[in-house]
C-alpha cells in the first residue's frame, strides 16, 4: 500500500552510503510534500557513519519554473480573469498543505474577489475579510455560497482536492472550462495543463496584479457565511447552536483539530478569527486520528516560541474510543489541551449513511468525568459537563477561566443521536445513494 502514497522509500543495508541515501529520501519528502519510508535493519542500526553530509542542508525549496512557460501561464490566467464578469477564488486543502497561504491571502486582499474555502481548506483564509463568502462542499452548501460559486464564470481554485468528503460526495458543480486549477507542480487553465509550480505562479501573478489592477466590480458577499440561530436556554443542545457558539470561543494562536465525521463538517459552520490554524481529515476517513494528533499539536506549541497558544480538539465519542489512550500522553507531558467531546450515543454520521438503528453504530458508555483521573491520576485536569442544553453551553463559554485553566480540560457535549449539521445530513444521503447505485450495478439484472 505504501508505494501508492509515498514519494520515496529506501532500506538501508550499506553503512557507507547510508547518509547519502537518507538525505536523498528526505530531500524527496520536502520537495514532494508527501510521506517517505526509511527502513533500517536491527543489525546495522548502531553502525557509525560519516557526519560529512550534515554540512549540506536539506533542500526545502522547489525548482524554479521555466520562465517562458510561466509567463505564458500568467498571461492566460490574466486573460481569463479580464474576460470574466464574476471571478471568484476557492482555497482548498492543497493550499494549506503546500505552503502558499501567504501568497493566497495577498491575492485575496489584492483582488477583493469573493473567496471561499472547502472543508479541507478551512483556516486557509482570513474569515474576517468582507469578501470571505463561506465554505463550499457541494450539495450541503449554504445557498448563497452555492449560487455564487456555481454561477461564476472564472474560478481560481487553489490546491483543489476533490475527495469524497471534501466535495459533499462529489456533488460540487464547477465547470472545468472556467476553472484555473492550481496544484503543487502544475497549473491547469481550462483543459490545458502546464507543468509549473503554483507557488511561483502565484507570486508572479501577484506582481502582475500590483502593476495592473484588475478592472472588476466583484460581486458583494450579501449573505452571512455563518448564520446564527437563537434558542432558549432550556432547549436541548443542538448542532445548529453548537458550531456558531464554538466559533466565539476560538482566538488567535489556537490550533484546532477536527475529527473525521460530524466534527469536521460542523467546524465549517464555526467562524475562525484571523490567526487560528485548523486541520481536519477529509481524505481517508480515519476516525480516531484527531485524539492522537492533538498530542503532536501540543508538543509543537511548546516548541513554537509563543507563536501558537492553545491545542483544541473537537471529536466524537465514538472516534475518541479508538485512540483514547493518547490522553495519558497529554497528561504526562503537560500539553494542556482543551477537548470537546460530542457525546451523541454512537456513530451519528454512520447512522445517517446506513444503519440508523443498527447495533454496530452504537458505542460503549464512558464516564468522561473520570477519564483524566484514570489515565493520569497524578496530573491536574478539569472536567466540564455534561453540557445538555443551549443555556449550559452559553454559561460555560462565558465562565471566567474556561479555556485558560493551565491544565487538561475536557468538555462533554450531549447531543441527539441523529442531530447533525445540515451538510452531514445531505452528504450522508448522497453517500447512501452512491452506495446503492454501486450495488445495483454489480447485482445481475440491477
TrEMBL record:
Residues 74-184 form the Thiamine pyrophosphate enzyme central domain. Its cofactor is thiamine diphosphate. Residues 273-377 form the Thiamine pyrophosphate enzyme TPP-binding domain. One of its GO terms (cellular component) is cytosol. Pfam families: TPP_enzyme_C, TPP_enzyme_M. GO terms for molecular function: magnesium ion binding; pyruvate decarboxylase activity; thiamine pyrophosphate binding. InterPro entries: DHS-like_NAD/FAD-binding_dom (IPR029035), PDC/IPDC-like (IPR012110), THDP-binding (IPR029061), Thiamin_PyroP_enz_cen_dom (IPR012000), TPP_enzyme_TPP-bd (IPR011766), TPP_PDC_IPDC (IPR047214). CDD domains: TPP_PDC_IPDC (cd02005). It comes from the Eukaryota. Keywords: Decarboxylase, Lyase, Magnesium, Metal-binding, Thiamine pyrophosphate. One of its GO terms (biological process) is aromatic amino acid family catabolic process to alcohol via Ehrlich pathway. Belongs to the TPP enzyme family. This is Pyruvate decarboxylase. It comes from Mytilinidion resinicola.
Amino acid at each position: 500500500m505504501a508505494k501508492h502514497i509515498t514519494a520515496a522509500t529506501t532500506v538501508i543495508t550499506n553503512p557507507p552510503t547510508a547518509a547519502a541515501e537518507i538525505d536523498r529520501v528526505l530531500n524527496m519528502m520536502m520537495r514532494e510534500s508527501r510521506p517517505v519510508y526509511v527502513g533500517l535493519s536491527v543489525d546495522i542500526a548502531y553502525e557509525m557513519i560519516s557526519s560529512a553530509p550534515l554540512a549540506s542542508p536539506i533542500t526545502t525549496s522547489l525548482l524554479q519554473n521555466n520562465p517562458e512557460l510561466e509567463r505564458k501561464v500568467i498571461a492566460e490566467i490574466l486573460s481569463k480573469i479580464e474576460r470574466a464578469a464574476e471571478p471568484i477564488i476557492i482555497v482548498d486543502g492543497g493550499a494549506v498543505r503546500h505552503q502558499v497561504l501567504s501568497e493566497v491571502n495577498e491575492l485575496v486582499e489584492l483582488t477583493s474577489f469573493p473567496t471561499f474555502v472547502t472543508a479541507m481548506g478551512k483556516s486557509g483564509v482570513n474569515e474576517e475579510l468582507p469578501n470571505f463568502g463561506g465554505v463550499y462542499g457541494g450539495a450541503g452548501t449554504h445557498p448563497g455560497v452555492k449560487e455564487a460559486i456555481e454561477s461564476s464564470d472564472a474560478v481560481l481554485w487553489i490546491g483543489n482536492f476533490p475527495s469524497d468528503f471534501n466535495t459533499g460526495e462529489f456533488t460540487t458543480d464547477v465547470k472545468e472550462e472556467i476553472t484555473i486549477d492550481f496544484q503543487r507542480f502544475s497549473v491547469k487553465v481550462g483543459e490545458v495543463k502546464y507543468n509549473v509550480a503554483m507557488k511561483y505562479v502565484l507570486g508572479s501573478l501577484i506582481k502582475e496584479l500590483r502593476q495592473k489592477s484588475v478592472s472588476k466590480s466583484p460581486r458583494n458577499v450579501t449573505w452571512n457565511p455563518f448564520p446564527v440561530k437563537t434558542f432558549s436556554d432550556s432547549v436541548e443542545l443542538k448542532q445548529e447552536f453548537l458550531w456558531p457558539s464554538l466559533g466565539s470561543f476560538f482566538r488567535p494562536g489556537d490550533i484546532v483539530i477536527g475529527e473525521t465525521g460530524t466534527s469536521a463538517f460542523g467546524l465549517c459552520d464555526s467562524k475562525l478569527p484571523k490567526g487560528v490554524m485548523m486541520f481536519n481529515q477529509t481524505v481517508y476517513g480515519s476516525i480516531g486520528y484527531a485524539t492522537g494528533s492533538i498530542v503532536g499539536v501540543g508538543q509543537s506549541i511548546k516548541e513554537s516560541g509563543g507563536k501558537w497558544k492553545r491545542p483544541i480538539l473537537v471529536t466524537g465519542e465514538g472516534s475518541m474510543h479508538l485512540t483514547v489512550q493518547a490522553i495519558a500522553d497529554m497528561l504526562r507531558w503537560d500539553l494542556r489541551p482543551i477537548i470537546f467531546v460530542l457525546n451523541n450515543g454512537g456513530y451519528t454520521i454512520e447512522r445517517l449513511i446506513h444503519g440508523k438503528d443498527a447495533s454496530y453504530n452504537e458505542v460503549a458508555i464512558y464516564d468522561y468525568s473520570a477519564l483524566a483521573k484514570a489515565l493520569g491520576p497524578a496530573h491536574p485536569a478539569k472536567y466540564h459537563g455534561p453540557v445538555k442544553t443551549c443555556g449550559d453551553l452559553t454559561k460555560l463559554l462565558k465562565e471566567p477561566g474556561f479555556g485558560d485553566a493551565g491544565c487538561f480540560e475536557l468538555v462533554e457535549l450531549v447531543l441527539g443521536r441523529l442531530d447533525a449539521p445540515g451538510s452531514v445530513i445531505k452528504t450522508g444521503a448522497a453517500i447512501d445513494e452512491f452506495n446503492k447505485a454501486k450495488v445495483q450495478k454489480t447485482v445481475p439484472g440491477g
